[in-house]
TrEMBL record, chain A:
Domain B12-binding: 90-217
GO molecular function annotations of the record: cobalamin binding; metal ion binding
A Pfam family it matches: B12-binding
Classification via SUPFAM superfamilies: Cobalamin (vitamin B12)-binding domain (SSF52242), Methionine synthase domain (SSF47644)
Name recorded for this polypeptide: Conserved protein
Source species: Mesobacillus selenatarsenatis (strain DSM 18680 / JCM 14380 / FERM P-15431 / SF-1)
UniProtKB/TrEMBL annotation, chain B:
Domain annotation STAS: ranges: 137-247
Pfam families listed in its UniProt record: STAS (PF01740)
Name of protein: STAS domain-containing protein
Keywords: Coiled coil
Coiled-coil intervals, chain numbering: 98-125
Family annotation (InterPro entries): STAS_dom, STAS_dom_sf
Cross-referenced PROSITE patterns: STAS
Species lineage: Bacteria, Bacillati, Bacillota, Bacilli, Bacillales
Length: 220, 248
């Protein structure tokens, strides 16, 4: 937690270089992506949320931290791509936040975990209206479409997104994530095919199981 | 209802339990007002709202997510002042400046998504290398017990002097030199800021009781030095060999 608080401070200062050095040290200490994403970056952003809750910072400060965090995530992903020779598994996944949802960092980390497992990914970022998602998915034909939301009243958007995306001709699997999933049940918004993953650990476990499934299929 | 009705901002008068006693017309235009102030606050901001409002000793303020008729998730600045068990609260919606900030952040996000991190790292590496090159472009060479040669290489700009100034001054002092020969033979272009920084270094050396000397000035250098606010009052020699002869 100490490192996360330290990172939170650098992010709030908009200090990209020192933030990156902290992540780089963790990477060099052989910490894996899941650990860095969950225990350092997510924990830092939660601490920033706590600082807002306790009236220590403003939303403007949070925006600067988000922007800085976005940069270190991009740099981490790029560095990871160099260090690890990732071979493609031939699968494609697209990532987006439902309409009006602005919190995208968790989704970005999820997309980067997918990349590490050899998926080809397309990150569409925050606030993507359903019509755009459908068009992009029809053209690109992803195997998985990952949706994220962090604000409770955005959950209402889930139902049409899940329904229409699962009905696409190539039948992608729709995966839903976001911080509220560990607090509430949202299954009622989906179908029996929809996956609800509570955190990045769940994402990693699913990718792990999926990877083994792919390998077994290949062997068969 | 008193004159608070005409407050130009959303205003609420609360009791100790945060029940709404009075409110302004503007408040009623923006919020669907019930009995409790907390009903106007997003559920995730309740704890924060209670903390801000609960400070009855003094004035307090902070940001809250509030539910308006327009949006269930709107950011407000609230200020509260308590007097005799009555809380006077003003809520001001965060204005367009935050929207501007959000659009800038979004631009950064999009630009980052398009940025080739590999090129970015190469650029940073080039900048680091350039810094190292500049640090190596001003070597300090001992000629005799009392004289040292400082050949300058590359362009004479502010960075060349600022990166090397301290090292030149330190070495000069430690070595107990009397004369420092600055050799301009390896200098390409000059900038006004670079010349000013160099003249300032020369003056510092003079103040330390040393005799700086400048060698190998080319016509384009002379133009800049002549235009400098203060041309250093030092000997100028056209070649290093003349300087050597002078020393020996």
């Amino acid at each position: 937690m100490e490192k996360a608080i330290e990172l939170a401070q650098h992010l709030l200062e908009g200090d990209q270089d020192t933030s990156w050095e902290l992540i780089e040290d963790e990477r060099k200490a052989s910490k894996d992506s899941l650990y860095i994403y969950e225990n350092i970056i997510t924990a830092a952003m939660r601490h920033i949320g706590h600082l807002w809750e306790t009236n220590k910072i403003t939303v403007a400060d949070e925006h600067l931290a988000t922007s800085t965090c976005d940069y270190i995530l991009a740099r981490y992903n790029w560095q990871n791509g160099i260090d690890k020779q990732i071979s493609s598994n031939g699968k494609k996944a697209m990532f987006l936040c439902v309409e009006n949802e602005q919190h995208f960092l968790g989704l970005k980390m999820a997309s980067q975990l997918f990349s590490e497992y050899g998926w080809e990914t397309k990150f569409h970022g925050p606030n993507l209206p359903l019509e755009y998602v459908k068009k992009a998915a029809e053209e690109w034909k992803p195997d998985a479409i990952c949706l994220s939301f962090s604000i409770l009243y955005h959950a209402e958007n889930l139902r049409p997104y899940i329904k229409e995306l699962e009905e696409l001709p190539h039948h992608p699997v729709v995966i839903v994530g976001g911080r509220l999933l560990s607090q509430y049940e949202f299954e009622r918004y989906g179908s029996d095919r929809t996956l609800f993953l509570k955190n990045l650990e769940d994402v990693n476990d699913w990718l792990d199981r999926h990877q083994h499934g792919v390998k077994m299929n290949v062997r068969c | 209802m008193s004159d608070v009705k005409y407050s130009p901002q959303p205003y609420f008068l609360l009791d100790r339990d945060f029940n709404i006693l009075e409110f302004s017309q503007i408040g009623a235009e923006i919020f669907s007002i019930g009995d409790m102030f907390l009903e106007l606050v997003d559920w995730e901001s309740h704890k924060k709202a209670t903390n801000i409002l609960g400070n009855r000793e003094s004035r307090a303020e902070g940001e809250l997510i509030m539910k308006t008729k327009e949006s269930p998730y709107a950011l407000f600045d609230i200020s509260v002042n308590w007097n005799e068990d009555k809380g006077h609260v003003i809520c001001i919606e965060k204005d367009h400046r935050l929207a501007e900030l959000e659009s800038i952040v979004e631009k950064h996000r999009k630009r980052l998504a398009e940025t080739n991190i590999e090129l970015l790292e190469k650029k940073e590496l080039v900048e680091k290398t350039l810094f190292e090159i500049k640090s190596l472009s001003c070597p300090f060479i001992k000629l005799t017990k009392s004289a040292a040669l400082v050949p300058l290489f590359g362009n004479l700009d502010e960075e060349l002097i600022s990166q090397n100034e301290k090292s030149v001054l330190d070495k000069t002092q430690q070595g107990g030199y009397l004369e420092i020969l600055f050799d301009f033979n390896g200098v390409g272009d000059l900038t006004n800021e670079g010349v000013e920084a160099f003249v300032s270094l020369v003056k510092e050396l003079q103040l330390m009781g040393l005799q700086p000397c400048i060698i190998g000035i080319k016509p384009n250098h002379a133009f800049y030095l002549n235009n400098s606010k203060t041309v250093p009052d030092v000997p100028f020699l056209n070649s290093l060999s003349k300087a050597f002869n002078k020393l020996i």
